[in-house]
Amino acid sequence: MLNAEFPPRPSWAEIDLAALEHNLRQAEQFCSPQQRVLAVVKADAYGHGAVPVTRCLVAAGVTDFAVATLEEALELRRAGIDQRLLVLGGCYPGQEGAFIDYSLTPVLLDADAALRLSAEAGRRQARLSVHLKVDSGMGRVGFLLEQLADFLPRLKTLPGLRIEGVMSHLACADEPESAVTAGQQERFRAVLQLLVAAGIAPREIHLSNSAGLVGWNFPEATLVRPGIMLYGGLPAAAFADRLELKPVLHLRSCISQLRALPQGSGVSYGHHFQTQRDSLVAVLPIGYADGYNRLFSNCGQAILRGRMVPVIGRVCMDWIMLDVTDLPGVAVGDCATLLGSADGLCISGDDWAEQLDTISYEIYCRIGQRVPRRYQQESR
C-alpha cells in the first residue's frame, strides 16, 4: 500500500457538491407537496462517492435514501448515516439478521424472502419494515399481480413484517410517446386497490425514477426516486428543456510529458494515428483502467487552456495522448478536463454517452476506484 504522505498521480474526479444540491432542487420542483425525495445513492452514488454524497444530501434536507445491496447500506451505516435506508436489491439468504441489526428496510421481491425475514424477526422478537415490490411491466423482479393476490392472505399473517411501503419501477418513462408507462401506472393502481381490499395500507407509495418524475404524474405517490438527474445526467433528451442540471463530476488529469514528434510518427498501440505534420503531443496519466473508454481512441476530446483538443492514438490502460500542436503556451502540469466543465466549456456525461452509444449512468459508474474523488462545496 502506498504511503498516504506521497502525492498521487495528477488525475482525479472533482465532485461539485453545490451542483449536486442544485440538481436536488431541480428534482424537488416536480414533487407535489405530499411527496418526498428518496435519493438513489446506489453504485457508490453512481460513482460520485456514496458517503460524501449522502452526507451532502442529508444536509440539504433529504431523509430517505436507496441503495442496491446490503453491502452498500452497511457502508453508509458505518459512516454514521442513520437516515432511512431502502435496499432495492432485497435480502439474500443469510442476510436477514443484518437488516434487523442495522435498521435497514429491504425491498420484498418474493414470497421466500418474506418468509425468511419474518422468521428471523420472530426469533429476535422484532418487527421489520419492508417495501413490497410489484412488477407492473418492467419484466424483471417483484411480485406479479396474480402472485401478489395469491400471497396476500399469507403475507398479512406474517408477524415479523410491517408492510411500510409498496413500489414498482417504470420501464419506458424516458420515452414520452410510449404507451407503456400509462399501462404500468394503471396496473400499479390496481395493486394499491388490491392492498386496500386486503386491509393493508402502506404508508409509502413510490413508482417514479428520474424520467418518471419529470415526464409523468403519479399523484398517489408519497416518494419519488431521482437518481441520474441528481448527478447532472438527463433522464432523457426529450426533457432537456424542462431541466437545468449541472454536472457534478469533473474528470481531470494534468500533462505528464510533452513530446515533439516529427511528421510521420506513429502514436500509441498499432500506430493507428500518424502525425501529418511536426506535432506537439501531450501525455496524460489516465486511461481505460480509470474509466476513459478505449473507444475514444482518435475521437475523444479534452478541454485544455480554454480550447477543445483532440485525443490521438489508442487510449491505453494508463495513458492518453492529446494533439496540442496549435495550443500556445501549453506546459507540463497543465490541467485538462476530460469530462465535466472548465473555462466555460463542457463535455457532459450525455455527450460521452451519445458518442459511445450508451447511457450516462454507465459513464459515471465506470470512473474507476483508483481515481481519487475530491469534493468541493462551491460551483466554479
Question: What is the compact description of this entry?
Answer:
By secondary structure, the chain is of the alpha/beta class. It has 2 domains: 17-232, TIM Barrel, CATH 3.20.20; 249-347, Lyase, Ornithine Decarboxylase, Chain A, domain 1 (Beta Barrel), CATH 2.40.37. The protein has helices spanning 17-28, 42-47, 50-59, 70-78, 96-101, 111-123, 145-155, 180-197, 210-215, 349-356, 360-365, and strands at residues 11-16, 36-40, 64-67, 84-87, 105-108, 128-133, 161-167, 204-206, 223-224, 249-254, 257-261, 266-267, 273-274, 279-284, 301-304, 307-312, 320-323, 335-342, 345-347, 373-376.
Describe it for me?
The protein has 380 residues and is of the alpha/beta class. The chain contains eleven helices and 20 strands. It has helices at 17-28, 42-47, 50-59, 70-78, 96-101, 111-123, 145-155, 180-197, 210-215, 349-356, 360-365, and strands spanning 11-16, 36-40, 64-67, 84-87, 105-108, 128-133, 161-167, 204-206, 223-224, 249-254, 257-261, 266-267, 273-274, 279-284, 301-304, 307-312, 320-323, 335-342, 345-347, 373-376. The longest helix is centred in the middle third of the chain and has 18 residues, at 180-197. The two termini are 34 Å apart. The relative contact order is 0.14.
Question: Helices, strands, pairings?
Answer:
Layout: E1 11-16, H1 17-28, E2 36-40, H2 42-47, H3 50-59, E3 64-67, H4 70-78, E4 84-87, H5 96-101, E5 105-108, H6 111-123, E6 128-133, H7 145-155, E7 161-167, H8 180-197, E8 204-206, H9 210-215, E9 223-224, E10 249-254, E11 257-261, E12 266-267, E13 273-274, E14 279-284, E15 301-304, E16 307-312, E17 320-323, E18 335-342, E19 345-347, H10 349-356, H11 360-365, E20 373-376
Parallel strand pairs: 1-20, 2-3, 2-9, 3-4, 4-5, 5-6, 6-7, 7-8
Antiparallel strand pairs: 1-10, 10-18, 11-14, 12-13, 14-17, 15-16, 16-17, 18-19
